[in-house]
Amino acid sequence: MECNPAHNQTLMTIETAEQWVDRSNHKDLEGLLGLTAPKIEIAGPRGAGFMNNADLEEWLERANLQLATLNRYAKDEWIVLEQHGTWLDEDGRIKGEAVVFTVMRIKDRQVHSLARYDGKEQAFQASGLSEEDRVG
Q: Are 43 and 118 in contact (CB under 8 A)?
């Protein structure tokens, strides 16, 4: 049986991204740190920049976001997750909901960059992915 390194990389990317989202949803900081590069590039509606592990906990608490993945597009070290996002107040009440597109670049089972976009085309442009990269 032939081994396809690109296919294996894509599978590892999908697995790591799903684990990262799950740990983020559960506010499992220790688990999240294990899947995050020591210096991660973050981009979203509030701007872009690099974050170290110490900043990740504050970001996780401030975002207070639950994500449910609807579709996945992945190839090599890039993944776009089409997700239903629910932002919560400190008391757990919903303060907003939207479909968002999360782009991750994953190397060596660690997320090196994460960006959130409102539109699929923006996410595809940032990642180099397309509809053809949709995975089950």
A: no
Separation of alpha carbons 132 and 53, rounded Å: 34
Q: In what order do the strands lie in the sheet with 94-107?
A: 47-52, 36-44, 110-117, 94-107, 78-88, 65-75, 134-135
What pTM was estimated for this model as a whole? 0.92
- For 34, the token pair is 């294990």
**Rounded Cα distance, 56 and 59, in Å:** 5
CA distances 101 to 30, 89, 104, 117, 118, Å, are 25, 22, 10, 5, 6
Q: What is the tens place of the pLDDT at every residue in 59-84?
A: 888 888 999 999 999 999 999 999 99
